[in-house]
Specification:
There is one protein chain. By secondary structure, this protein is mainly alpha-helical. The protein has a single domain (about 10-395), classed as Glycosyltransferase (Alpha/alpha barrel), CATH 1.50.10. It has helices at about 30-40, 65-75, 80-90, 90-110, 115-130, 165-180, 190-215, 215-220, 225-240, 245-260, 270, 300-315, 320-335, 365-375, 380-395; strands spanning about 10-15, 20-25, 45, 135, 150, 275, 280-285. A three-stranded mixed β-sheet has the order 3-6-7. Strands 1-2 form a two-stranded antiparallel sheet. A hairpin with a 2-residue loop joins strand 1 (about 10-15) and strand 2. Helix 6 (about 165-180) runs parallel beside helix 9 and helix 9 packs antiparallel against helix 10.
């Protein structure tokens, strides 16, 4: 697989056990939470067949923001029109595939402060809003209520509205709102008008819609990564909402997903165990309560990492110590060795090496991890954008 290769449209979605689950190409809350994780880690987790490699040691300073920005601009220039077409689609599966470019433009905006990246992210969000239709007008909708949304007509869903495809894109739209709220652009009346429209839609026709329809079915989802998308949206909206009551609800939703799910005997933290061969690395399963098997597949595990990294960055509950443990999972098992990319977080299986939607973000916490990621053999524009933000955060971190 070439250095620039990565799935552009990642697999299909199929119904399973009453839910819709993506099949990608084969490829934090309270001070006591960390102590609780350490206690959980006394259990043994499924393991790599051989000892983990030693932690990476930086041999030189990480590459600068300008390096990654140049790579991103060169590659994304050919992706812009395709992304805009996806954003104008009335099919939420297209928005699912658009998520990566929204995330990439948010990352470059945060890394450089250049308004052109925020402009494109806003335009894509506005286009999606413009293509939304009342649920009552969608022929195959099972809801037929007053909320606006999209049918997923390209999937085996019968044209239903899907919480998964919407949350997958909207976690990055709400991240854009957080980025704008803390930037000088927020004081510009033209940007403020656009920001407010996207915020209002996000609160009513994304979060409120699916929470009102049934939080147990559509928010507290049956897999780690699916629930993580909603935790991401929740902590983002908690940072930007002007409604204290809603802020309380958003934080409660994220806290339940992190630590105490109402419908499963676990939580994101409750899933975490220590690798037997590398106690500083996390192992976890994507199935709530499961503590056997190979664990979370890396492709979907990106969604978990993307969320916990945002939470750590925003002081929303996940901690730097926990990021260190996730980072050790990355360097010990996920990056692979000798050109072989594993499928699961225990280092087993054969995967694609696609880390652009989550695991790459761990480079911002440690220069050695960033340097290891620089050598990763599967990179694309989203990967380059996250590496640019990592480089910016490392360069501006306080000693």
């Amino acid at each position: 697989m070439s250095r620039s290769s990565v799935p552009r449209r990642l697999g299909r979605i199929r119904p399973a056990a009453g839910a819709v689950v993506p099949r990608l190409r084969r490829a934090v809350t309270r001070a006591v939470a960390v102590a609780a994780v350490v206690m959980l880690c006394t259990a043994a987790a499924p393991d790599l067949r051989e000892p983990a490699p030693p932690p990476p040691v930086p041999t030189a300073a990480p590459l600068p923001v300008s390096h990654w920005q140049g790579l991103f601009d060169a590659e994304s220039a050919g992706e812009r029109q395709a992304s805009l077409r996806l954003s104008r689609s009335a099919d939420s599966w297209d928005h699912y595939n658009l998520a990566y470019q929204i995330d990439a433009n948010v990352s470059l905006f945060l890394a450089t402060g250049q308004a052109r990246y925020a402009d494109l992210g806003l335009t894509m969000a506005e286009n999606m809003i413009g293509s939304a239709r009342p649920s009552s007008s969608l022929p195959a909708s099972g809801f037929k209520d007053g909320y606006r949304g999209w049918a997923a007509t390209q999937l085996n869903s019968g044209g239903q509205e899907l919480a998964l495809t919407e949350s997958y894109a909207w976690r990055y739209v709400t991240h854009l709102l957080v980025a704008l709220r803390s930037s000088p652009l927020y004081g510009d009346p033209s940007y403020l008008t656009r920001y407010q429209r996207v915020l209002e839609f996000s609160e009513k026709h994304i979060f409120e819609k699916w929470f009102t329809r049934d939080p147990v079915k559509f928010i507290y989802r049956e897999r780690t990564h699916m629930a993580a998308h909603w935790a991401y949206i929740s902590i983002a909206l908690a940072k930007v909402t002007s409604d204290n009551g809603l802020r309380k609800r958003y934080r409660e939703v994220a806290a339940k997903i992190d630590d105490d799910l109402p419908n499963y005997p676990s939580s994101l933290r409750g899933q975490l165990m220590a690798s037997r061969s590398e106690p500083m690395a996390y192992w976890w399963s994507d199935v709530w309560g499961r503590k056997t098997g190979n664990g979370q597949d890396i492709a979907h595990g990106n969604g978990v990492i993307s969320y916990v990294a945002a939470s750590c960055d925003w002081g929303a509950g996940w901690t730097s110590e926990e990021m260190s443990r996730f980072s050790r999972t990355l360097t010990a098992f996920v990056l692979g060795r000798d050109g072989r990319y594993p499928e699961f977080v225990n280092g087993r299986g054969s995967g694609t090496g696609w880390l652009a939607d989550g695991f790459v973000k761990l480079g911002r916490y440690n220069p050695a991890v960033q340097r290891a990621l620089e050598q990763h053999g599967v990179q694309n524009s989203q990967f380059h954008a996250s590496m640019a933000l990592n480089a910016h955060l490392l360069a501006t971190a306080r000693p």
